[in-house]
Amino acid sequence: MCATCGCGDDGATITLTDGHHQHHHPHPDDGHPHRHAHTDTVSLDQKVLAKNDQLAAQNRQWLTERHILALNLTSSPGSGKTTLLERTIRELGRSRSVAVIEGDQETLLDAERIRATGARAIQVNTGAGCHLDAAMVRRALETLAPPRDSLLFIENVGNLVCPALFDLGESGKIVVISVTEGADKPLKYPHMFAAAALVVVNKSDLLPYVDFDVDTFTTHARSINPGVDILTLSATTGEGIPKWYDWIDIRANEAVSHGSVDKTMPPE
Length: 268
What we know:
- With about 270 residues, the protein is of the alpha/beta class.
- It has eight helices and nine strands.
- It has a nine-stranded mixed beta sheet with strand order 2-1-5-4-6-3-7-8-9, sandwiched between helices.
- The protein is globular and about 45 Å long.
């Protein structure tokens, strides 16, 4: 499917972390990508993107009608987004229902970590795929069935390239980076930062020990996306976490105040 990294279409596996309802679904096969030699060009099959956008619109309608705030968390590997999710669920889960769709190429490790917090979680293993797509999320929603007025986190595959281009039907994309990654990340991955509603700079407790300038990073991020929100925090120590929760609460309350018709499953 994806000419950016050559990920294949060998199927996605969707597994509830209670060990039941495991399904193997063929990935939508809309033809093979045309590879290009130009290293500065991202090329995707437009038919694939068009079909994905249609399914994403259906996902978004279904989520909106059920007043569910769906946040798509993207990052490089090792940014700490699973740790951030664990803390968020333990603390925010006291006041609202939280569910998680976990995306990884293999293993159930992250979904098991999330399930240990008490949240309902489902694992989507993408096989050779480097990102979640709207069809995978739709199937996950059918199995997970998050309740009305809830909060849904979609933890995407660790990758700052392809997830930027695939709409899942989410309310917004959140980019999580750590201070160990370098302040130039927005310039290296402009598509992802341009698509973000929020950028979370994690591991702020390490700032005294690394060469990371928050002001420089902020300047780079807003040169790509002038209106993006940026929060600096530590998922380990809790520094800056209240502002993260405030950001979520504002948008969750907005989601509850919208929507009308309830449907039991995403439309076919």
